Every structure is written in C-alpha cells, then in structure tokens.
Amino acid sequence: MDDCIFCKILKGEIPSKKAYEDEQVYAFYDIEPKAPVHILVIPKQHLPGAAAITPENSAVVGHIFEVIAQLTREMGLTDYRVVTNNGADAGQTVHHLHFHILAGGKLGEMA
Ligand code: 5GP
Ligand code: ZN
Question: Would you give the distance in Å from CA 94 to the centre of its chain?
Fold first, then answer.
C-alpha cells in the first residue's frame, strides 16, 4: 500500500528501530512509547486491521504471537500486554494490522 506508513517502514522509506524481523513479520519500537517498553509487531503483508483477518491469512497471526513470546522472553519481559486496536473509536490510527507490546512496569488497568 503506497500511502501506508507501516508499508513505508517495511520498505525502509521511513526509518525505524528494529526489534525483530523474519520473512513474515517485522517488530520495531513505537515512536511515541506509551509504556517503558513499547514495540509494534506487524505482518509484512498489508492487512488493514484485525477485522481483515480471515481463514486464508490468519496463520501469520499465530506466528506473530510466537514472535511475541520469543522476543519478550529474550528481552527478559515476563509481564506484558498485547493490544490491537480496530477502528477509530478503538484508537486505531494506522491501518496496517499491528500488535502493541506494552511492558516494563506496572501497566494501568484496561479491559
Ligand atoms: P494505533 O493507534 O493505530 O493502534 O497504533 C499506531 C502506533 O503507531 C502508535 O502507537 C504510534 O505512536 C505509532 N507510530 C505512528 N507512526 C509511526 C512511525 O512513523 N514510526 C514508529 N516507530 N511508530 C509510529
Ligand atoms: Zn501497510
């Protein structure tokens, strides 16, 4: 997607601080961290959000959660929150599926 910020990050057109990468997935530090550790994990395939997950493309979501488990383990993070926002009222501002990893301290109550 030409006008997608995260596709531009994947293409290297916008710089980012990488936390992890493989063939399917890219993880990078959020530019405006909402917790001491705030990482975004995205599929390399452009999907607009959680509502676009289907039986045909859902395997990458399982893989993303494997990556989250591995990355947090390697970073020594035992306590963390994983969030995805779908739609403007839920706080979605970037329409490329992404999972926030929030960690590094006592997180406020949510959900
Ligand atoms: P959303 O609000 O859609 O759930 O999450 C989008 C996230 O992307 C926000 O936390 C925001 O700070 C982050 N973000 C937006 N633009 C950039 C960028 O250019 N680089 C990085 N690293 N994060 C970004
Ligand atoms: Zn995209």
Answer: 11
pTM over the 0.70 mark? yes
What confidence tens digit (pLDDT) does each residue in 3-46 have? 999 999 999 999 999 999 999 999 999 999 999 999 999 999 99
Helices of type H across the chain = 5-11, 59-74
Query: 55 C-alpha to center of ligand 2: Å?
Result: 20
Phi, psi of 102 (to 5 degrees): -115, 130
Catalytic member of 95, 96, 98, 100: 98
Burial tier of 15 (Cβ tally within 10 Å: 0-12, 13-18, 19+)? exposed
Q: 100 catalytic, yes or no?
A: no
Predicted confidence (pLDDT) per residue in 49-68, tens digit: 999 999 999 999 999 999 99
Classify residue 82 as left (phi > 0), alpha (psi -120 to 50) or beta.
beta
Strands 99-103, 37-43: pairing kind: antiparallel
